[in-house]
Amino acid sequence: MLTIERQEIILSLLREKDVVTVKEMCEVTNASESTIRRDLTELEKHQYIKRVHGGASLLKKKREEPTLLEKSTINQQEKSMIAQKAASFIEEGDSIYLDAGSSTIELIPFLKDKSVMVVTNGIPHVQLLIEYGIETYCISGKAKRGTAALVGTKAVDSIKEYRFDKCILGINGIHLEQGLTTPDPEEASVKQTALAQSQARYVLADPSKFGEVSFANVADLAGVHIITTNGLSDEQQETISKQTTLEVVPL
Amino acid sequence: MLTIERQEIILSLLREKDVVTVKEMCEVTNASESTIRRDLTELEKHQYIKRVHGGASLLKKKREEPTLLEKSTINQQEKSMIAQKAASFIEEGDSIYLDAGSSTIELIPFLKDKSVMVVTNGIPHVQLLIEYGIETYCISGKAKRGTAALVGTKAVDSIKEYRFDKCILGINGIHLEQGLTTPDPEEASVKQTALAQSQARYVLADPSKFGEVSFANVADLAGVHIITTNGLSDEQQETISKQTTLEVVPL
DNA sequence: TCACAAACAATCAATGTCAATCATTTATAA
DNA sequence: TTATAAATGATTGACATTGATTGTTTGTGA
């Protein structure tokens, strides 16, 4: 079995199970403990997993961030509808920060013919934006494997050179007390900075994100518009609406 | 069996299976290990696949297969060879500026396993670099339609935040008196800045670029290594060599 | 606190994989 | 046809990966 195959198996085990022991991984892959350990070291180096005594877990509590490709196929239609709603808030001449991620990329087709100016930290976003003939600026930063997002100090500093009428962010967790959270602290800093530079703030989130808490805190709910589809209980909607603006897109 | 046939088989195996070992490919094609390895080297050069220890895997970005394989090769192959020569100058631990453009992108497969740090203004470059697991930084700037290059004041300022051991540029015109030129003044500024921040300077250019003059001046020939294939007359070679270092890759 | 077991990193020998080289076969041109 | 070039397969030494073994560290429960 090839190294890369084995590592893929380890990752998929983790996606199912949150925490997996070294022994389990040995059994599934028919590899020795040494080999598994080496794989774990490798995977940790590339920030796919976090090692714990006895095994490994994903960087995030719940599960690995799916790669962009996986994400984009799963709930694409739902995301597209959420994105369309977000686009309806965008006005002619706006300067916009568009966060990296699979939700926000769905917004781009709706920006066509709007004569807006977009700044983004998502590499695939840049490509798509210019294909649509939209005036696009890319921030600087370190390119993160997997999501192809630009992060780090340079990214944060780079965002500070702009002011935005609106920013549109994706998010992993939305929680009444914990606020907005995301798995990667580096990405969290970038999001924070973008929020700070923006007049109006929109967060795209499908209902599965509600009640979730990820590792790194981004902001609390006050002052952001959350756009989602209807999949929340009336009760949930009500409690959240007390803290922030909630836009619900009918499916 | 024809080389093309065999390579097609390898590609279709990969499309089915994502990761394939050399042995499997040998069995299916009845070719020797050596031949398969040569095929893999070839396919990787042209960015159809990514080699891994023991076999090969598909680059996530799926490219068009049949026509490309038959046709494109001449220019691309030439570019790839020039890029390979450029890569031979790159050492372990180097920090590199990689200019946007179709010549420089060919360099990326040769950077694999070199533990270098790359800064680039090419959006497709960023995507490919992170797929190869190379530490990648993207500068900021305005995204230019067509070439997907980042340009403008922000780009220039952004480059100034780095120092490079080596920079690798593409270029449109190389002329004895006019020096290096390119059509877009915005891109010219970016190239100039990159040159200024670099210890060693490499310019990739196929022979058709010699004698050409484009609109915007980038730099004169002194102090840059020009890498090209042999298509120049001995006379041309000699006169240019008086002004700068000329590396000629045999076809 | 201690003792014990599990988990661990470091090392080593065996095996597998690799690029480079060369001789042979196969295609192509003269 | 012969001469030349290209593709192929086998071989080689260098290097990478692997599993076993070692001694050390870490966590657990008495």
UniProtKB/TrEMBL annotation, chains A, B:
GO MF entries: DNA binding; DNA-binding transcription factor activity
InterPro entries tied to this protein: Carb_Metab_HTH_regulators (IPR050313), DeoR-like_C (IPR014036), DeoR_HTH (IPR001034), NagB/RpiA_transferase-like (IPR037171), Tscrpt_reg_HTH_DeoR_CS (IPR018356), WH-like_DNA-bd_sf (IPR036388), WH_DNA-bd_sf (IPR036390)
Record-annotated HTH deoR-type domain positions: 3-58
Magnesium keyword on record: no
Top-rank lineage group of the source organism: Bacteria
Alphabetically ordered keywords of this record: DNA-binding, Transcription, Transcription regulation
Keyword Transcription attached: yes
Pfam families to which the protein is assigned, alphabetical: DeoRC, HTH_DeoR
Protein name: Transcriptional regulator, DeoR family
Organism the protein comes from: Gracilibacillus orientalis
